[in-house]
Amino acid sequence: MMVLQAKERVFPLAAEFKISRGARTESRVVEVTVEADGITALGEAFPYPRYGESIDSVITQIDSVAAAIAGGAGRDELQGMLPAGAARNAVDCALWDLEAKRAGKRVWELAGIPAPPVLTTAYTLSLDAPEAMGAAAAAQKARPVLKLKLAGDGQDEARVAAVRAATPEAKLIVDANEGAKPAEAEALCRALAKLGVAMIEQPVAVADDACLAGFPHPVPLCADESFHTRADFGKVEGRYDFINIKLDKTGGLTEALAVAEEAKRRGFRIMTGCMVGSSLAMAPATLVAAQSEIVDIDGPLLMAKDRENGLTYRGSLVEPPSAKLWG
User: Could you give the angle at the alpha carbon of 61 between the alpha carbons of 101 and 261, nearest 5°?
Assistant: First the structure.
């Protein structure tokens, strides 16, 4: 019999992390364990208030499927038992881990895909005043890819200019977190193109992104809040060039792998992103990141201390996960 349990874990951050919606000094995640046949398998998810999630709501969702999992329900059944989101992600990834441990294989072997290579992740600069973001960029000037958080407050061009001046060789991507107004989107794209920005993530609110179909994109645009699962492809076609695949949005690795295949078929470029989670959350994302043009799995780099057996980061290079961690 399989025993499914969920609990909260808290990881202090190395510094305050701020985006346009607020700031945090710690990462509060839900950790799932599935125990069977003397094996303990793990999964992790980050409940995101933007999507109506909390620690309590996610644990309640997970508890609601514990009996079905104990009765033998697997990943395929799980897709219909829980909606896409953090709860399903944690359980799905734990079930992948269990399958791998039972089979004595790695998850990518079970999925029929190549092992993830050493990856290069973006490093995220927290939202701040332009001068402070420029100084933060200078401290990370050895990193090849930097991601900037923007706010839609009239200072975004100055923020990017300060970072560009501090790191003239870095590839810059920006994340507006829905901060720009529709009337500002075209001008923002033009301004950031002049600063050599390689991609803009979710410039406007989900409810407003129809405006993005109305003008050429001098900088490629990436759907984040606007895209969760395969059901959303029709909503973002003609508006965005990239999709950001996050397992906490897709509801696990199972759907994330299917999304990646569908994205390639439809001609979308792929970014793999993350919430502020530990290496346990990043490990399954490496399988999707291996298929992506832009990789943003830097959550553990923002923490004061990662979990045991965490991913190995060498600067911005990320090694594949060890079996001791996951999969």
Answer: 55
Give the closest residue to 257 by CA, choosing from 232, 233, 281, 290. 290
- CATH 3.30.390.10 domain residues, the chain: 3-106
The CATH architecture annotation of domain 119-318 reads: Alpha-Beta Barrel (3.20)
Nearest to 171 by CA among 316, 38, 301: 316
Taking phi first (over 0 means left), then psi (-120 to 50 degrees means alpha), and beta for anything else, what does residue 255 get?
alpha
| Token pair 């645009």 in the structure block, residue | 221
**Nearest-angstrom CA–CA distance, 231 and 242:** 16
* Beta carbons within 8 Å of 6's beta carbon, 6+ residues apart: 30, 31, 32, 33, 58, 59, 62, 63, 90
Name the one residue in this structure whose structure tokens are 């298929």: 291
Is 3-106 CATH 3.75.10.10? no
| Span 243-259, pLDDT tens digits | 999 999 999 999 999 99
Bridge partners, residue 165, by sequence: none
Q: Is the pTM of this model over 0.85?
A: yes
Give me the active site residues, please. Answer: 149, 246
Domain with CATH 3.20.20.120 in the chain: 119-318
In angstroms, the CA 271 to CA 210 distance is 21
CA–CA separation, 33 and 63 (whole Å): 12
User: For the chain, what percent of residues have pLDDT higher than 70?
Assistant: 100
